[in-house]
Amino acid sequence: MATTQTAPSSIHAHRASRRAQAKMSARDVNVFYGDKQALFDVALDIPAHHVTALIGPSGCGKSTFLRCLNRMNDVVDIARVEGDITMDGGDIYALDVVELRARVGMVFQKPNPFPKSIFDNVAYGPRIHGLAQDRDELGEIVFTSLEKAGLLDEVRDRLDQPGTGLSGGQQQRLCIARAIAVNPEVILMDEPCSALDPIATARIEELIDELREHYTIVIVTHSMQQAARVSQRTAFLHLGELVEVGDTQDIFTNPRDERTQGYITGRFG
Amino acid sequence: MSDTAPARPATAEAVARGLRRRYAAEQRFRLYGMAAIGFALAVLTILFATVVANGWSAFRQTYIQLDLPLEAADIDPDGTRDPAVLSRADYEGLVKKTLRGMFPDVTNRREKRELYDLVSSAAAFDLRDAVLEDPSLVGGTFQLRVPASDDLDMYMKGYIRADSPEDERRISDRQIARIEALREQGRVETGFNLGFFISGDSREPELAGIAGAALGSLWTMLVVLILSFPLGVMAAIYLEEFAPRNRWTDIIEVNINNLAAVPSIVFGLLGLAVFLNFFGLPRSAPLVGGMVLALMTLPTVIIAGRAALQAVPPSIREAALGLGASRMQMVGGHVLPLAMPGMLTGAIIGMARALGETAPLLMIGMVAFIVDLPKGPLDAATALPVQIFLWADSPERAFVERTSAATIVLLVFLICMNLGAVLLRRKFERRW
Q1: pLDDT tens digits for A184-208?
Q2: Using one digit for the tens of pLDDT, what is the confidence trace for A248-262?
């Protein structure tokens, strides 16, 4: 809504040099699950401090592409990723996977807090990466992360209680707090609101807009309205192909490809 | 739309027609289930009731009160009170003399023998121990409660009936008369059979106890726990979380499943061939028994451990990996704590099976007749199920009740272990 109206004009101005500016960039990405090919030659740039939305019908490869960006597909035995993905110009496969995932955080479709206290949930990332020198500093990180995730006021006096005891929306914000506690550069969100009610969804969407200031965000969503509300750039995928990518405003008002048009107008999906 | 509307009543009718049949089927199925559970419970109750009915009497023992005149001339003629002298005295003769004194009418050899047979041979040893502990007893009259012989005990417990023909029972009419005489004097009493719980095996049923076998089982289980739990958990973690999926791991997996089904006697043979004959480890030792049973338990632990790891939701793994945790940190910090209750349950079920296992222990010599209590995993020992097997094989009537009593002890052990499993599970389970 408001955000789509005020997409930064700088994007229009520097379209040509986008690859150089892009926080992350993918070229010729092919992904195979066993014999089945899930992505075909996907090329996409993810500009810094923007929200990039990936939309498309079920099974189009949105999540698959998202999981390429922090190499989550490495975990899947049968998955094979080909192509060239860079972050700040460097190949992500040249980085250690642990370092990559510390710099590219992820929020999942279903809220998945650890069966630990709220504090320990947020503190886990900083702990394993050694980001805090002492307890005070760790507490500081936890507090600021919860604050940024807009959860602090709700959980301030029950940090030692289980994270799984929160409501669905709170759990998802806890997962966002957990992701930003590591201070990543990019946050990947895989349909973060699909398990939430409209009010919780609205809170998360607000939050995403606030987070854009500090982080680069890639969000997979089923809801075109959500993509229109929160993102500045939208990429439409269909059957494993990247059909169209552009400023969210353009995609929704003036799609160039007829498949995009068909999806947006609700003819399939 | 228009053609689905008239179909509605037909659906309702069809449903209504089938409804009774469906509910009847459900009702029947429930009844089958309840009948199955009822039958299982009944059989279990009968089993327990039989064992307890046969075994409970072994927890009580008949004792005879003897007034033993400890004359210095018999025990310590020189009056030195030297322990060496005291320990060499003829206490057996003293007990016999006392018995003869109680029944002055006994004269011939056969009657004397019958008289002596009423008290346990332990009487002399008990007396000696008492004197060595307190030499000042010498010179006075010492009251000693000695276990009655197994035959007298059986008579007192009603397993030998006085009205059966004399040549069909193990005690004679004369002996019965003597017992009744003792009883009238208030010298026969029945008390808690402490000896059964603190002594080792014996050829004399009234002296035979379960402690040796129980300790042997304990040492064995300790070895099994120390070997099979860490090894099994490590193997499960590696296979489930780290190992690549290829032909080799497939072969390993198939073989682990096969090993879980190998008859236990085969593990006994393996232990005999490898641990005893090749490595020369001591025979009859709980260490070897534990090693053999650990091999037997290992597949169960691994399979249960892998199942527990698989049951951990993938979302937890993804959450940890997504934050940049290494695989090791993911497993150690999140997956293992969640899988622990399942792993413990698997290990304890495996150990409970090992506790009741007899066949492999026969092969490595834990079936020997061992009187001493094992003080460590290297001492010769036997185990509870083997003890049951040995006693069940003995001809004396008194061993019948002891066999059942040992079974009760074994069952109590098992119940304790399973209870421990439940408690540990509760403690580790974190479903929040």
Answers
A1: 999 999 999 888 888 888 988 999 9
A2: 999 999 888 889 888
CA angle, residues A200, A204, A210, in degrees to nearest 5 = 150
> In chain B, which residues have their Cβ closer than 8 Å to the Cβ of A113?
319
Q: Give me the pLDDT at residue B408, please.
A: 94
Determine the pLDDT at residue B286.
Answer: 93
On average, the pLDDT of chain A sits at: 87
Residue B6: pLDDT band with limits 50, 70, 90 = low
* Residue of A87, A110, A117, A128 to mutate when probing chain B, most B C-beta within 10 A: A128
Q: Please compute the mean of the pLDDT values over residues B42-53 and round it to a whole number.
A: 94
Across-strand partners of A54?
A: A220, A235
Identify which of A20, A255, A238, A209 has the alpha carbon closest to the alpha carbon of residue A246: A255
The complex scores an ipTM of: 0.84
* C-alpha to C-alpha distance for B127 and B370, rounded to whole angstroms: 24
Q: Find the distance separating the first CA and the last CA of chain A, reported in whole Å.
A: 22
Instruction: State the residue for tokens 């510390």.
Output: A102
Q: What does A102-147 look like in DSSP terms, one character per residue?
A: HHEEEE-SS----SSBHHHHHHHHHHHHT--SSHHHHHHHHHHHHH
Place of tokens 């101005």: A13
Q: Is B316 on the interface with A (CB under 8 A)?
A: yes
The whole-angstrom separation of Cα A243 and Cα A245 is 7
User: In the structure encoding, which two tokens stand for residue B165, read together?
Assistant: 């023909």
pTM of the entire predicted model: 0.82
* Integer Cα distance of B305 and B342 in angstroms: 7
Mean pLDDT of A133-145: 92
CA A163 – CA B35 distance, rounded (Å): 44
Q: Which CATH class is domain B211-428?
A: mainly alpha
Question: Which of A115, A165, A182 is closest, CB to CB, to B324?
Answer: A182
- Partners of A244 in the β-ladder: A236
Residues β-bridged to residue A237:
A242
What is the gyration radius of the CA atoms in chain B, in angstroms? 32
- The strand pair at A24-33 and A36-46 is best described as antiparallel
Q: How is residue A23 written in tokens?
A: 């926080």
CB atoms within 10 A of CB B429: 13
Which contiguous run of DSSP H or E holds residue B375?
Answer: none
Distance, in Å, from the CA atom of B99 to the CA atom of B421, rounded to the nearest integer, reads 53
Residue contact A101–B321, C-beta within 8 A: yes
| DSSP helix/strand/coil, A176 | helix
Model confidence at B126, pLDDT cuts 50, 70, 90, reads confident
A75/B321 Cβ within 8 A: yes
Contact B115, B181 (CB under 8 A): no
Mean pLDDT of B190-200: 90
The CA-atom distances, in angstroms, between A215 and each of A49, A155, B170, B189 are 6, 24, 94, 88
Residue type, B238: Y
AA letter at B366: M
Q: For residue B341, list chain A residues with Cβ-Cβ distance below 8 A.
A: none
Domains of chain B, residue spans: 7-56, 59-203, 211-428
As a whole number of angstroms, the distance between CA A46 and CA A49 comes to 9
On whether the CB atoms of residues B239 and B253 are closer than 8 A, the answer is: yes
Nearest to B369 by CA among B340, B349, B399: B399
Q: Taking CB atoms and an 8 Å cutoff, what residues of chain B touch A99? A: 324
- Chain-chain contact of A108 with B319 (C-beta, under 8 angstroms): yes
